[in-house]
Amino acid sequence: MSNVAIFDTRTDAKIPLESPLAYAYRRFGAPAATARSRVTLRERPFLGHLILRGGAIVLDEAVREVLGISLPGEPQGLVLDAEGERSIQWLSPDEWLVIVPGGEEFTLENRLREALAGAHFAISNVSGGQTLVELEGEAARELLMKSVIYDVHPSHFPVGKGVTTVFAKTTVILRRPSDARWELVVRRSFADYTYRWLLDAGEAHDIGVER
Amino acid sequence: MSQPNRLSQGGRIDRSRKLHFTFNGKRYQGHAGDTLAAALLANGVDIVNRSFKYSRPRGIVAAGAEEPNAVVQLGSSEAGQVPNVRATQQALFDGLVARSTNGWPNVQRDMMSLVGKLGGQFMPPGFYYKTFMAPASLWMTYEKFIRKGAGLGRSPTEQDPDIYDHLHQHCDVLVIGAGPAGLAATLAAARSGARVILCDEQEEMGGSLLDARERLDGKPASQWVAEALATLAGMENVTLLPRTTANGYHDHHFVTLHERRTEHLGETAPLRDGHRQVRSRMHRVRAGRVVLATGTHERPLVYANNDVPGNLVAGAVSTYVRRYGVVPGQRLVLSTSNDHAYRAALDWLESGREVVAIADARANPDGELVEQARAQGIRIMTGSAVVEAKGDTRVTGARVAKVDLDGFRVVGKAETLDCDTIASSGGYSPVIHLASHTGGRPTWRDDLLAFVPTLVKGVSAAGGAHGIYATAEVLADGQHAGGQAASELGFQAVSIELPKVAARRDGPACALYQVPHEKPTLRAPKQFVDLQNDVTAAGIELATREGFESIEHVKRYTAMGFGTDQGKLGNINGMAIAARCLNKSIPEVGTTVFRPNYTPVTFGAIVGRHCRELFDPERYTAMHQWHVEHGAEFEDVGQWKRPWYFPQVRADAVNGELESMAEAVARECRAVREAIGILDASTLGKIDIQGPDAREFLGRVYTNKWAKLAPGRVRYGLMCKDDGMVFDDGTTSCLGENHFLMTTTTGGAAGVLEWLELWHQTEWPELQVYFTSVTDHWATMTITGPEARKLLAELTDIDLDREAFQFMDWREGKVADVPARVFRISFTGELAYEINVQANYAQHVWDALFAHGEKYGLTPYGTETMHVLRAEKGFIIAGQETDGSVTPEDLGMQWCVGYDKPFSWIGQRALTREDTKREGRKQLVGLKPKDAKVVLEEGAQIVLDPTHAIPMPMVGHVTSSYYSPTLDSGFALAVIKGGQQRMGETVYLPMADGQTHEAEIVSPIFVDPKGERQNV
Amino acid sequence: MFNIHCPYCGELREEEEFHPKGQAHIARPADPAACTDEEWGDYLFFRDNPRGIHHELWVHAVGCRKFFNITRHTVSYEILETYKMGEQPSFTAEYPQGGSDAAAMHPAQVAQQAGVHA
User: Which parts of the sequence belong to the FAD/NAD(P)-binding domain (chain B) (predicted)?
Assistant: First the structure.
């Protein structure tokens, strides 16, 4: 464990935080959702995002012990805890994305490292580098069809699935945690572009932004 | 306003809705449900264009996508201009404004028509190549004239007010064409539960059923169409896309569908519920199976003056009469090789106008439609064909003669019939364009006298698209194709009930393409094959005489099937003529390749939303807003927007004038060398590397040694490809024994990560190491200059003592109360600290540095100043000093190469190849212009002897060049053959303006060669 | 626009998610120092350009980031199979119908890509 430098990049000091979408909100505003809105957008900023690398069997045991949920072993799997607050998503045969409430990630990393002692694995904190954007509403799927190349038809994209794919001219991690909700994990530097794209493509659906 | 050719009843138009439109400046009236072509014909407009090459008057020939003549320019305003619209495909809307594409100055009185009259001698095939090739330098001038004369339409010069988009569609079965075959296929596939998309290019779905004489289940065919569409519209697994053309069939059943959503409503998309509507949409469809139900194009016959307005293909006559209630003339002569075309005569007669005669090239036609025509008293001239149309701006007569098809000659004397319309039919060509896009060469079938598509796996054709014409058979064929496609994908086929259609007995057709004339083809009046490109039978014959035997060469020489036409009407006739001239069969001659797009697609639909501010992603750092607010000019680095420089209000400003770029950069440079500057370096790629073999891996991908780098230390590294050429560089820090943080160039970040994965996954999977991008997680701010330590000391708990925190060390602690990793590395040659914090805190830390930094003169600087400062130090930029042909030794960076590392690292072996060891390779040097005021041009070529005759031997080029405020002189980095052995020599840089600059070869390190300043 | 079965993601994905990386099965010589200049040049620069069956290395760049191989017909553009690193192709120039002896058969993946043809 000492062979890896673990570093809590978060502080409890009262420091103003800026989410990846902060500049986009200031620049383009956030149209309020109305009764006509057929899709709404909501950012869930400042969550804890960890990238977990390693063998599925080794990681699964540690994750179940520490998080209480099992590691999705099948490709494109997405697993949430009972509260829907913590999730693990398959990204590749040796890579998972863990998202937890903001502030839990450092403790989680330490506990996982403890549970995994001796194994070959890696954990990288990427919380500052990405943000979670939720889409809900009857037009969410059509908005996604305008934006991503992946097939988002419910028969092909059931609840509990998540993929990395092409979004307009950038990339996105797209997931479906529940029937009504889609989640986009957006890279910080592309957040402004992604937000502008969603507002533009969502205009026809009276997209509203909840803040 | 009267519509002389409008029937008092019939057709599918809405007579209660009158629509006004303007064509070539004149106002007309039509009805809702008309196409522009139908409305023009209803109003008796004969001439719709002038032809491409000969400028002959042209009228409407067809009723669909195959129309070659009625290609118009739409738009009442400059911004609304749309070129290359077929009038046969444009729905009429109130206020539509259209004009002819060709015709200069106007279609009625055309200045080039003289050329057309005499054109046979003046403009043979290959005319443009032969006439305008010399002198080559004038070609551009000729081309402008030709284009203006030819008139290919024009794009608007003002911004398009409309919006466009893309929709990514996925389906099990895509059915293209909503005629009887397509509807039956869709019903069959949809009933099985498959996800089905049905698209059709016309205003209404139904295809040939919309003008069919047949009754389905005893009802008009259009009624069955309406019922079928209602059924499909009610199914959740079916997407119906009318007004949608399948334009391109790409690999693995990826098909682009161009949907025209509002083109039928107005020139610009009207608002709906207060929202702008998408005018055109590109559906990018990935299908599991595709059914081509694209039907046929009728072939016109090729006879003399067959281009005079009033010559139509037979099926178009039926379409205009039955769908639009328009009969495009008074007296009809039909010339045919088959039974089906008799419909035109019957429909014409039933509309109350005169059928003068039917010339049937067959000796003994006896099919059911023939008998019906006889029974109606229509004169049928057997063994005959129209050999020549009479008339100038409209058909005034038809010369009909007996023809000997085998001998290709006219027999006996022609009879001239008084008529104003000639309909012709030489048979039917399956629409094989989409199948052709997939690479399949079509197959000729003698029994059908047509090419049928050769299909790749997963595609099927149904109905007319592969030569099945009888309605009952077409319906059954469609059902089979749709069911088969679905069942191949694992869906359970469900049988559907098809309507009953009475079978019709048709006699066999005969093969007739070009109709013989009394005169030989080369001397007969023009017999047009490709009306859009003005290709004649004589032109093809001449091409074959001149030795063009391959049909692909004939096509290019004559322009047959070029451009927006893609040979829809003319190609088969052209091939048949070439075959006759070459004494070959049609399959021996073969066909040319049809290419996407099937019909023109507006750029808006191709671009979709990817325009204006969404043209390309702009990547921003966490401090981007600050940069904007502080007046930064930005530079594009990959997709990143990086501050280039920060112009300030000039000290002597009266009206707030800003510094020039040179002034701003000079000020920023001085601030760094004399006090302190700050750079947003967040864009550098950052890769988190963990694992017991991380160190070993670094040793293999970097040229230098990593075995002994201790935690807390940082090292610069060069990366080569296995050819020994440098492709990226950066610093890597040892965070822990098994933990490293690699930085890459801004532009190289994604490529380097993929490079590491490539080697790990394909060559060294046994190494235990993981790579994760953390570029966006960290924000990086570099403070650099003599005052950097003092400023940082005010904000951090890290011990900055020069012994405790040395150059090339990193430490962690807090900066402005935020957890930070601070790296003491320098790209400026000055004392420098790179502060890394989680990006969500970045603005706070950046602000705190400025709050404390003002008293030290903290100055923000951009990439230009960064470049000047690093170049003064001789630090390279991968991609600027290197171009994929530069080794570490060429850069003079042997100090960064571990020749004795145990593992043969990437690039090592290549450094001892003959080519990389040879003398005279280009090597990195500095250049000092003899005139200090001169800033050499980047990319300028370097010579040793400026008096040498041109071409002078070039020995290298300038890679970086700037003005240095520190040196008060221009200076440059360059690569020069054998440069490291040429220190002190003078070289010359001849410029395009005739000046020649002189420069001295010097060391590439211009400032602080011992590197003392960064170590303070 | 290819439709490619990623053997790691286990499903067909759009070509835009992938990067082609050239000919497959180009192994780096184990002892570069022992190679002649010509041998090293062959490894670096020389690639096949067959008309017919070709093995290519691709990476699922916007996806699982894994490298894998594709057997593709360069005329029809049909992708006959995709297979993971370390596996051998079933379709080869000698076995254009599949069933190469050298192949550790992976019928499931062959079958999945078989849903897609040029």
Answer: 172-466
Q: Do C17 and A149 touch (CB under 8 A)?
A: yes
Report if residue A95 sits inside a domain.
yes
- Residue-wise pLDDT tens digits, A110-151: 999 999 998 999 999 999 999 999 999 999 999 999 999 999
**C118 within some domain:** no
- The answer to whether residue A43 sits within a structural domain is yes
CA distance A82 to A64: 13
Question: How many angstroms away from the CA of B195 is the closest CA of chain C?
Answer: 16
Choose the closest CB to C28 out of B252, B763, B765. Answer: B763
Average pLDDT, stretch A47-58?
96
Contact: B616, A169; criterion CB under 8 Å: yes
The pLDDT of residue B147 is: 53
For chain A, first and last CA: distance in Å?
40
Q: pLDDT per position in chain C (118 positions), as tens? A: 999 999 999 999 999 999 999 999 999 999 999 999 999 999 999 999 999 999 999 999 999 999 999 999 999 999 999 999 999 999 999 999 888 765 555 555 555 565 444 4
- In this complex, do A169 and B841 lie within 8 Å of one another by their Cβ atoms? no
Q: Domain tally for chain C? A: 1
Alpha-carbon distance of B126 to B560, in angstroms, equals: 11
Contacts of B722 in chain C (CB under 8 A): 28, 43-44
Peptide bond just before B951 cis, omega within 30 deg = yes
Nearest to C1 among B252, B288, B758 (CB): B252
Q: How far is B438 from chain C (nearest CA, A)?
A: 7
Taking 80 as the threshold, does the pLDDT of residue B579 lie above it? yes
Write B270-276 long-range contacts (CB < 8 A, 24+): B275/A203, B275/A204, B275/A206, B276/A203, B276/A204, B276/B162, B276/B163
Give the Cβ contact number of residue B145 at 10 Å: 10
Share of chain B above pLDDT 70, in %: 95
How distant is the Cα of C83 from the closest Cα of chain A, in angstroms? 15
Closest-CA residue of C relative to A93 is C8
Helix H or strand E segment including B914: helix B914-917
Choose the CATH number for B300-426 among 3.50.50.60, 1.10.150.130, 3.30.360.10, 3.30.450.20.
3.50.50.60
Q: Which chains touch A (3 or more CB pairs under 8 A)?
A: B, C
CA pair distance B481, B473, nearest whole angstrom: 12
Q: Which CATH number applies to B1-158?
A: 3.10.20.440
Residue A9 lies in a domain: no
> What architecture is domain B163-296+430-488?
3-Layer(bba) Sandwich (3.50)
Instruction: For residue C104, list its beta bridge partners.
Output: none
Q: How many domains does chain A have?
A: 1
ipTM of the complex in this document: 0.98
Predicted TM-score (pTM) of the model is 0.94
CB of A63 less than 8 A from some CB of C: no
> In the CATH scheme, what architecture does the domain B520-601 have?
Orthogonal Bundle (1.10)
Is the confidence at residue B705, as pLDDT, over 80?
Answer: yes
Amino acid at the residue B348? W
Subunit contact C14:A93, Cβ cutoff 8 A: no
- Contact state of A165 with C62 under an 8 Å Cβ cutoff: yes
Where exactly does CATH 3.50.50.60 map onto chain B? 163-296+430-488, 300-426
Residue B236 neighbours by CB under 8 Å, 6+ apart: none
Q: Residue B953 has which token pair?
A: 């031997």
Whole-number pLDDT of residue C113: 60
Q: Is residue A36 part of a domain?
A: yes
Residues of B in contact with A59 (CB under 8 A): none
Q: Could you list the residue range(s) of the whole structural domain that residue C66 is in?
A: 3-113
Tell me what pLDDT residue A123 has. Answer: 98
Alpha-carbon distance B885 to nearest alpha carbon in chain C (angstroms) = 14
Residue A44 contacts residue A137 (beta carbons within 8 Å)? no
**Which of B116-120, B184-188, B345-349, B409-413 shows the lowest per-residue confidence on average (mean pLDDT)?**
B116-120
